[in-house]
């Protein structure tokens, strides 16, 4: 889905997209000129049962994508990032942390680390995208 939208990131570095249910669906379904409730519902038809939904949402939050990603629209992701009472990242101590909707994960937008919110001392993974060279 994100081919042509990567903004300087190589699509090959976003391997999770190969497992996305939207793989092969026209890009305009997920990145329309104008977002609307009907378009979001159509996208959610893929997103809500997708095995990489959380990874997709994490990508969109980390890289500021617009459109429908991980079952959310641009406005919903903006609200997720606008939280005021954030915890600190257990690794880099940044307060740029968001809770992932629909899961018990938290994501640090500064270093890319994610962890279970019930156990902040147990990091789970780190986003490891590299710029296209």
Describe the fold and architecture.
With 133 residues, the chain is an alpha+beta fold. The protein is built from 4 helices and 4 strands; from the N terminus they run ααααββββ. It has helices spanning 27-30, 37-47, 53-63, 74-81; strands at 97-99, 105-108, 113-116, 123-126. The chain has a 4-stranded antiparallel sheet with strand order 1-2-3-4, with no helix packed on it.
Secondary-structure blueprint of this entry?
Blueprint: H1 27-30, H2 37-47, H3 53-63, H4 74-81, E1 97-99, E2 105-108, E3 113-116, E4 123-126
End-to-end C-alpha gap: 21 Å
Proportion of beta-strand residues: 5-15%
Query: Counting H and I runs of at least 4 residues, what is the number of helices?
Result: 4
Question: How many beta-strand runs?
Answer: 4
Written as H for each helix and E for each strand, in order along the chain, the element string is HHHHEEEE
The Cα radius of gyration reads: 15 Å
What is the averaged pLDDT score? Answer: 77
* Mass-distribution shape: globular
Which structural class do you get from the secondary structure elements? Answer: alpha+beta
Low-confidence spans = 1-10, 120-125, 127-133
Give the strand order, joined by hyphens, for the main sheet.
1-2-3-4
Main sheet specs: 4 strands, antiparallel
Assign a percent range to the helix content. Answer: 25-40%
């Amino acid at each position: 889905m994100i081919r042509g939208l990567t903004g300087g990131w190589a699509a090959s570095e976003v391997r999770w997209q190969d497992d996305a249910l939207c793989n092969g669906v026209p890009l305009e379904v997920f990145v329309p000129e104008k977002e609307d409730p009907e378009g979001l519902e159509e996208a959610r038809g893929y997103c809500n049962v997708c095995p990489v939904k959380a990874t997709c949402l994490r990508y969109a939050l980390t890289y500021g994508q617009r459109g429908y990603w991980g079952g959310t629209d641009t406005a919903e992701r903006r609200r997720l990032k606008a939280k005021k009472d954030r915890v600190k990242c257990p690794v880099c101590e940044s307060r740029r942390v968001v809770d992932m909707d629909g899961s018990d994960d938290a994501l640090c937008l500064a270093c890319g680390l994610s962890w279970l919110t019930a156990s902040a001392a147990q990091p789970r993974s780190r986003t490891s995208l590299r710029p296209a060279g």
